[in-house]
Fold this sequence. Notes:
Shape: globular
Number of strands: 40
Number of helices: 19
Strand order of the largest sheet: 9-10-11-12-20-16-15-14-18
Distance between the termini: 73 Å
Radius of gyration: 26 Å
Amino acid sequence: MKPSLxxxxxxxxxxxxxxxxxxxxxVRIREAFSTSVLDFVNPFVGTQKMGHTFPGACVPxxxxxxxxxxxxxxxxxxxxxxxxxxxxxxxxxxDDPTILGFSHPHFSGTGHSDLGDILIxxxxxxxxxxxxxxxxxxxxxxxRFSHERETASPGYYSVMLDDYGIRAExxxxxxxxxxxxxxxxxxxxxxxxxxxxxxxxxxxxxWANLRVENDTTLTGYRITRGWARTNYTHFxxxxxxxxxxxxxxxxxxxxxNGFWRRFKTTENFPEMxxxxxxxxxxxDFDEGETLEIKVALSAVDALGxxxxxxxxxxxxxxxxxxxxxxxxxxxxxxxxxxxGTRDQKTVFYTALYHAMIHPSLYMxxxxxxxxxxxxxxxxxxxxxxxxxxxxxxxxxxxxxINLIRPDLSRDFVSSMLAHYQQxxxxxxxxxxxxxxxxWCMIGYHGVSVLTDAWVKGVLPERDFPPExxxxxxxxxxxxxxxxxSVEYAQLGYVPLEVTGNAASVTLEYAYDDWCIYQFAKxxxxxxxxxxxxxxxxxxxNIFDPALGFARPRYRDGSWKEDFxxxxxxxxxxxxxxxxxxxxxVPHDVPGLIEQMGGREVFEARLxxxxxxxxxxxxxxxxxxxxxxxxxxxxxxxxxxxHHVPYLYAWTDNPSKAQPRIRAIMDQMYQNKPxxxxxxxxxxxxxxxxxxxxxxxxxxCPGSDQYVIGAPYFPKLSLNLPHGKEFTVIAxxxxxxxxYIQSIRLNGKPLQGYFLTHGDITGGGILEFDMGPRPK
Length: 775
């Protein structure tokens, strides 16, 4: 027998009575972490310009990212794209003068967007239900603010809303956002705007519902059609103070209202429904009185949201939940100990923080979750996650989690396999979020994530049947209607007639096919291994021997005419040019060198990539590339080139990588709001920094190999699972001494520039002797 919502609600009302707790100032919590790694995290890094990060509160890999939104630019108006919307992928831009309110789920660092559900804004004075404008905030509910009275740290955010004299504070649990608003004396209210959203447009909200269960409890849901085509967000709200009055406005034109017309539903009516709902709830406040609001989310139903609210917040004050959030971050970030300057530590731990926001929890406390088929499933033996930005994160973020949190990687792989089994396409995720496949970007990089976890020993065979893993990989690589996969299998490349990104699709398919080959070989399936070994060589079919660069070709085999190696527009590559993308053959670098004309040519091209000038005209219409992310023609601000500096390891002068990698780290990662040179992309940009600071990088995920670059810190220690420690020591490292003279692993000389995963996970010491000149 299932408990009814009303019975459960009665239990929650009793159990969730707010605990009596003295309000403590910020410093008292911070004193407990006076030497904490939390002091070296700056959530404002990346909130200005291209980083697309948010400053608000969350816990590691949690379902809620409660953060301020400073503007709402619609994705389109009457179907016409609004380019400025791109700036607000995370809802917040550091240069903005006003705050609209605080919404609950956010992406971190993406170049496309969604979410921003359930926006709450506290106000005083005249009731306003419009947003107003940044130029005239008094025409709506938004408020001016200043950075002088705004602070953020892991699990906490605070700002003074200047127009209302209200101090806003935010913290979070895994499934709930916690608000605390300190009001001036008199009447105040909160506005709940169920029309607000990131990448909004007229018609995005398909339906919203809000119920007043009693004078301190609200429930509701909203269904949106955005990047996630059908996104269900259920919520439960617990207020620390009884509501005095409430009401709402529905801005839609209602052509049929049935017999609801007998009621005046806009004032003190406990059920609100529509597509354009903005509600308000009024209270009386003494001077300095606080209102605490706990908002739990669920993709399943209101009962799930109430259970989440009860399990994670019942009987706990804002300060207690804030302390728990800090403790969760302290535990995760303490996996590393480093020596360096304060700015260096801040850049490092902020990168680690950003690499631990996504993927995000997508399951209620009772194990229920909404699947990719939109049915409700019960997780068996794993925790379900969402937000798999795999075109970005297969490169370094997932390999980083394999190294530092293999238990979490197992949950990620289980979630991806559940996605595969529920998918009508029988495919692993391409780019998925909130129970939806959004099909963003190219390739089938789920196979890379699975193979990388497998070859590194993360997936025990008893829990992850290799036959199922291989089935998921093979099916994902053979969807007949996906990006020229049929032509690719027939011709050995994707023709330009099929997709404008044909060359980059071919390169990425070839790498993914190598991953399938690796996996099939490892489990003894020789038939599949042989087929995919051949497919992995398909990259050669688009290398023009006259140029030594990748070039798209047509179905009849002819090459694209009027081809420009530098242009990122209309040349057959996605978010890149041939100069950068031609280096994406991580699985066969010796073969790539041969295609380019030999070792000398290969090295010379790497040199040129970093030193040549790329005029603005070649990327001015590509949103994800900006001048800040360029070093010569090398594009660090976007993912396809992230492995390129490490390719020097295959040349006669591997030391050339060492100053280049250090220059990227110094110039493109800084402790300031515009301290990221491009979208952080769900932690990929940050994960590159973490690996590079350790002195090595996973050039080819799906192998167990890391390529050595150069150490960044005098000493770095990684606390591995099962109590082991891996330490990197750079003797004589200094501003001029950036070149490796010799390398020792556990006291023995290391020949070459390669490590294995086992070298690291076994624990030990990697030592570098550094000097001022290459050796």
